[in-house]
Design a protein that fits this description.
heterodimer, A: mainly alpha, two-stranded antiparallel sheet, 78% helix, 1% strand, B: 11 helices, 3% strand
Chain lengths: 321, 289
């Protein structure tokens, strides 16, 4: 599945990436404040989705823990936001999620398949309900007010996290770790017999992916101003990254990115156009995407490509795809 | 002291009956049809709302509504498997990929069903009173509807167990649970059996919903909490073990009742702690192999 190559390699040259980056970085100069907020949300989902795909893409372990890491970041900002500089808080958010992911990973990654999915899901719920209990019964207050930060600052920090994440993903895929992870996904026993420390590789990559989710949560909290356990540890933040990644297709680095961008934009359009039917339409889109796009949008391209070329009667192109 | 223990135990068993029923349905859908149905609670919600509508609009006794709720929800579940999960199963490269995809598809279903229910019934909390007179059991006082609901839950559970153990189609279901490929070689119509299992799982959820609506107020968002309980019970009993789920339901009911006596706000937290410890220490559950 991962050997699918949709577009020529030159298309994704560093130059193009740099151009997109410059265009995005300069966008506060030429787009409306509303677009900046929308872009920030899109970046957030791209970060969550790509981080999810770093680990779950190659291994096939469905992690439903993103909400835990994201929520930890949110709570770090809520607790430390007033005392420390913003960048430090974001860093701590990422670090706290990293540590949490190391613990969760060490405990749970021995479990395979569906057990891992439901255990990570259960952990998010445990954290949420424990915090809720803590806030209502011990501290006596529910929810917290978060420091306010300008939209442009949030935008730039989110963009910076995204760039760091893309670089990490790019190099991770080409590193020894990336290859080890790939072989674990294909056959875990075989990988172990080849001398790969299977558990260690899984735990480390899992923890690395959590850093970015935590950092994204830490900065996103400032946009929401008020947070409580229901907002911070909403299971939607666990499921959406998985769905966006599958929707986009996980065979390529840019699959999850495309999935997240389209999905978030779609969500935005649906909430404003059809406020009453939005969740319903959303559910239908999810089911249809899973049913009809087994390899995601990215997987759809070569199919269309082939069909077009077959009509044109070019055997050469057929053979090369 | 003895009175307190009795109080707590009876309350736990009364709750456990419903948990068991819900969990058996969930277990059937996962154990045989291999769908970790995160939308299980939505079928409970539909069952509850159909019963509510029957009672408040047509004045039909909730116990009679069971006969209406059952077929409706069974057909919904059966068709859902035919048009959605059966196709996913064929298109998935491996059983593990199918489990992942069906979990995510069920998550989409959760939204669809919940929002259709909001469009039909509105988002408000609803309820009706039925058999609210109290009875005392060894000194502990409970509403009659809880006893009726628990007895029915146990009765439905036992009837279902007999069906699986004795009926011809029940044998086919058990064969499919053990090894779908071999079962189909032995002449079991595997697609029919899987759809049947999904439908039956939904049916049990619907029955659970009917019984819940007799005791508690209902709303379209009520389903998820029961889904979570079903997941915990099924893990407790052993994924795929029907008997384990049935026993697990009562165990969880008892645990919930004990913790709730001591600190009501912590009962959900206690469920998760049990759940996670269990997965870490004994993922196969109490009845698993």
């Amino acid at each position: 599945m991962n050997s699918l190559r949709v577009t020529p390699k030159s298309f994704l040259s560093p130059g193009i990436f740099l151009l997109i980056l410059v265009l995005l970085a300069a966008s506060p100069l030429y787009v409306s404040p509303y677009t900046i907020v929308l872009l920030t949300t899109i970046f957030m989902f791209v970060i969550l989705t790509v981080s999810w795909a770093i680990f779950s893409g190659p291994t096939g372990y469905i992690s439903l823990a993103p909400a835990a890491f994201f929520g930890v970041g949110i709570y770090i900002t809520a607790m430390l936001g007033k005392e420390l500089p913003l960048l430090v808080v974001v860093g701590i958010g990422g670090l706290a999620s990293f540590v949490l992911a190391l613990i969760i990973g060490a405990l749970t990654l021995r479990l395979r398949g569906i057990y891992f999915a439901i255990l990570t899901f259960g952990l998010v719920e445990l954290i949420r309900h424990f915090l809720l209990f803590w806030e209502t019964n011990i501290t006596g207050t529910r929810g917290r007010i978060v420091v306010l930060v300008e939209n442009d600052v949030i935008f730039y920090i989110m963009l910076a996290i995204l760039v760091l994440l893309m670089l990490t993903t790019y190099f991770l895929r080409r590193s020894k770790f990336g290859l080890a992870l790939q072989s674990i996904g294909e056959n875990e026993e075989a990988a172990a017999h080849r001398g790969i420390n299977v558990t260690m590789v899984k735990v480390i990559v899992f923890a690395i992916s959590a850093i970015f989710m935590g950092a994204a949560g830490a900065i996103m909290a400032t946009k929401w101003t008020y947070i409580d356990p229901y907002i911070a540890f909403n299971p939607l933040f666990s499921f959406l990254p998985a769905l966006m990644a599958i929707f986009g297709g996980m065979g390529q680095l840019y699959g999850p990115v495309i999935g997240a961008v389209i999905f978030t934009y779609l969500e935005e359009v649906l909430t404003t156009r059809f406020p009453y039917y939005y969740m319903l339409i959303f559910g239908v889109v999810l089911v249809v995407a899973i049913l009809y796009l087994p390899n995601g949008l990215v997987g759809l391209l070569p199919r269309l490509w082939r069909r077009r070329w077959r009509k044109g009667g070019s055997a050469k192109q057929n053979a090369s795809t | 002291m003895i009175k307190i223990i009795l109080d707590v135990v009876v309350a736990g068993l009364l709750m456990g009956g419903i948990y068991a029923l819900i969990a058996v349905g969930f277990s059937l859908q996962y154990g045989v049809a291999r769908v970790l149905n995160i939308a299980h609670g939505e079928f409970i919600m539909i069952g509850a709302f159909i019963t509510w509508t029957m009672y408040t609009v047509f004045g039909i006794n909730p116990l009679v509504s069971l006969a209406i709720v059952g077929p409706i929800i069974f057909i919904i579940g059966f068709l859902l498997h035919k048009v959605l999960f059966a196709r996913l199963r064929i298109s998935s490269p491996s059983p593990a990929a199918y489990e992942g995809k069906s979990l995510l598809a069920a998550f989409g279903l959760l939204y669809i069903i919940q929002n259709v229910a909001i469009l039909i019934w509105g988002a408000e909390v609803k309820g009706y009173s039925y058999l609210t007179s109290s009875f005392s059991l060894w000194g502990a006082v409970f509403a009659t509807n809880r006893l009726v609901a628990t007895l029915l839950a146990i009765g439905i559970g036992l009837a279902f167990y007999l069906f699986l153990a004795r009926a011809r189609i029940g044998k086919a279901i058990r064969a499919a649970a053990q090894d779908p490929a071999t079962a189909s070689l032995m002449g079991v119509n595997i697609n029919l059996v899987l759809a049947l299992c999904f439908g039956l799982g939904a049916l049990l959820a619907g029955f659970g919903g009917s019984l819940i609506s007799m005791m508690y107020s209902i709303q379209p968002a009520m389903g998820f909490q029961y889904t979570i309980i079903a997941i915990i019970v099924v893990v407790l009993g052993g994924l795929g073990s029907i008997l384990g789920s049935f026993i697990g339901g009562f165990i969880l009911g008892l645990v919930g009742s004990i913790v709730a006596y001591w600190q009501p706000a912590l009962s959900l937290v206690a469920y998760y702690v049990i759940f996670i410890l269990l997965l870490l220490i004994r993922p196969a559950g109490i009845m698993g192999k």
